[in-house]
């Protein structure tokens, strides 16, 4: 498939899970893929650039963005997918855990968009996808810290849609339901009442297919929000 041939696509949180599936799908569609995460080794190989960065750190996000612009140019597509997860009741959630969730699920989204979105808009186009969650618009027990970050991310997304209207950049929030990735490993959903079995969750490739759909819309079409979940 060559739907993304000639396009440069940056995917954050691409070392595993949904982000890795998005990077693979974009690569298979012909894009030059830049993967960003904390555990990737810095390297450039076979039309693929890997950058190691902690996206909660403003200096590292600035350094990552500078490298991207120098080595690949302003990306045509950004998928900001890096995120964390916590399942804990309010009274058991420590202030440090709350801060950590908000740093990765909200602050990182602010830092990445602040570095990349203005230069995409200056070039007059592109696709900017943020990966939210069903927990960016529905409240669940044990989700205080996670939902605070993801609801905040939806607020950031809606603000950017308004602020960048007319710039040519297509902005989308993709909000998946439970997806079978390593993010669930510490929480054992198969044996946790009220949670779907892992076998009943979305596959990372389901979310990647949805994001590929968004990234292949014509420039005149904006998909503001795409929600998907298992049946
Ligand atoms: N799985 C689900 O059920 C589900 C449902 C709805 C939404 N989501 C969202 O989908 C996204 C991906 O989740 P996933 O299930 O694929 O999780 P995952 O397998 O744990 O992957 C998370 C990714 O984020 C990266 N990351 C975490 N902290 C980072 C940081 N400080 N700086 C840079 N990268 C960081 C991780 O890479 P390193 O550790 O290498 O840095 C990893 O590549 C998240 O935003 C999550 O909230 C997931």
Radius of gyration: 17 Å
The CATH architecture classification is 3-Layer(aba) Sandwich
- CATH C-level label: Alpha Beta
Question: Can you tell me the number of structural domains?
Answer: 1
Helix tally equals: 5
Major beta sheet, strand line-up: 3-4-2-1-5-6-7-8
Q: What's the helix-strand series?
A: EHEEEHEHEHEHE
CATH superfamily, by name, is NAD(P)-binding Rossmann-like Domain
Share in β-strands:
15-25%
**Could you report the average pLDDT, rounded to the nearest whole number?**
97
* Major beta sheet summary: 8 strands, mixed
Q: Which distinct ligands sit in these coordinates?
A: NADP nicotinamide-adenine-dinucleotide phosphate
The helix fraction, in percent, is 25-40%
What would you call the structural class? alpha/beta
Features:
231 residues; 8 strands; binds NADP nicotinamide-adenine-dinucleotide phosphate; globular; alpha/beta; 5 helices; Rossmann fold
């Amino acid at each position: 498939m060559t739907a993304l041939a000639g396009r440069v696509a940056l995917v954050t949180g691409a070392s595993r899970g949904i982000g890795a599936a998005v990077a693979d799908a974009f690569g298979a569609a012909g894009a030059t893929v830049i993967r960003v995460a904390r555990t990737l080794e810095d390297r450039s190989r076979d039309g693929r650039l890997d950058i190691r960065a902690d996206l909660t750190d403003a200096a590292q996000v600035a350094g990552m963005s500078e490298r991207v612009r120098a080595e690949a140019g302003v990306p045509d597509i950004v998928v900001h997918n890096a995120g964390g997860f916590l399942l804990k009741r309010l009274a058991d959630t420590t202030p440090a855990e709350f801060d950590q969730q908000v740093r990765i699920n909200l602050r990182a989204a602010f830092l990445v968009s602040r570095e990349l979105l203005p230069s995409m808009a200056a070039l007059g186009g592109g696709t900017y996808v943020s990966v939210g969650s069903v927990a960016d618009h529905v409240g669940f027990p044990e989700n205080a810290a996670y939902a605070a970050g993801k609801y905040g991310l939806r607020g950031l997304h809606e603000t950017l849609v308004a602020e960048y209207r007319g710039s040519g950049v297509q902005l989308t929030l993709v909000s998946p339901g439970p997806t079978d990735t390593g993010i669930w490993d510490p929480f054992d959903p198969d044996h946790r009442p009220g949670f779907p079995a892992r076998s009943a969750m979305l596959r990372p490739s389901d979310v990647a297919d949805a994001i590929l759909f968004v990234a292949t819309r014509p420039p005149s079409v904006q998909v503001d929000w795409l929600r998907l979940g298992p049946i």
